[in-house]
Amino acid sequence: MSIAIPSELITALRGAKHVVFLTGAGVSAESGIATFRDAMTGLWERYSAEQLANADAFRRDRELVWGWYEWRRMQVMKAEPNAAHRAIAAIASKVPRVDVVTQNVDDLHERAGSDKVLHLHGRLNRPFCFACGHPHTLSAGIPNEPEGGRRLAPPQCERCGGYVRPGVVWFGEMLPKSQWDAAVEACEACDVLFSVGTSSLVQPAAGLPLLAARRRAMVVQVNPNPTSLDGIAQINLVGAAGVIMPALVDATW
Ligand code: OAD
Q: Is residue 45 part of a domain?
């Protein structure tokens, strides 16, 4: 199937000096990583991501929450970057400046070749102590989690003995300031911003395309489903990121 890429987008990309990709769970969906708003399976089917991704849930039942994140970390380590991650990495060699700003806690952009990825919501592979904040080094190798997951006791901090928590931003927590400030700067300075595979529901990340639009950047959305960004994006490319992003590269360069 050939994808029609609008000519004004091709022209804008050929002349662009600075492109930002804001990505969400949908960019990793074709690598086999479930999105946040997909129904959960196995041990987790009675929960939503929001119910597990917060500090109160960890205080109440840390084995449930740690087990969920270790299960997700296993899935990510077994997964491979897909054609969308690779196309985004390839565009860095075509445009003078490219910034990747992701809400994802996986490392698939980096493994596809994107460097200096801004992780607004933290990273699965950077856990730290819930009590004192000291970073925790995970053992090498893929966690051995059964299909459907299991409860799992978190490790304890080598410095204070507190429990280690996942290295992600939970609901109700601040985003890492350095990553957020860099993302705002990029969105206010870019010529073209792509919002790829995000429901645009979670603030403050969902506000970033508006910063770009206010500065007259071209805002482009890549998503198979409608989102609240539909009315703001100048161009809506409707479909899977793993199909549209390589087609965009082929059509442009
Ligand atoms: P969501 O699960 O909310 O949305 C995923 C989006 O990806 C949806 O709009 C889908 O239509 C779209 N999608 C699915 N398959 C796709 C594909 N193959 N190609 C392109 N798009 C596809 O995930 P996010 O928007 O990333 O926050 O969620 C934002 C934040 O909410 C997450 O970072 C997380 C979550 O709760 C925290 O944990 C703090």
A: yes
DSSP 75-141: HHHH----HHHHHHHHHTTTSSEEEEEE---S-HHHHHT--S-EETTB-TT--EETTT--B-PPPSS
pTM: predicted TM-score of the whole model, two decimal places? 0.97
- Ligand 1 center to residue 102 CA distance, Å? 11
Residue-range definition of the domain harbouring residue 252: 1-33+80-123+175-253
Distance from residue 156's CA to the centre of ligand 1 (Å): 31
CB of 169 within 6 A of ligand 1: the answer is: yes
Does ligand 1 come within 6 angstroms of the Cβ of 124? no
Q: What's the average pLDDT block by block, 10 residues per block, for the chain (253 residues)?
A: 89 98 98 90 88 97 96 96 98 98 98 96 98 96 90 97 98 97 98 98 97 98 97 98 98 97
Decide whether any atom of ligand 1 lies within 6 Å of the 198 Cβ: yes
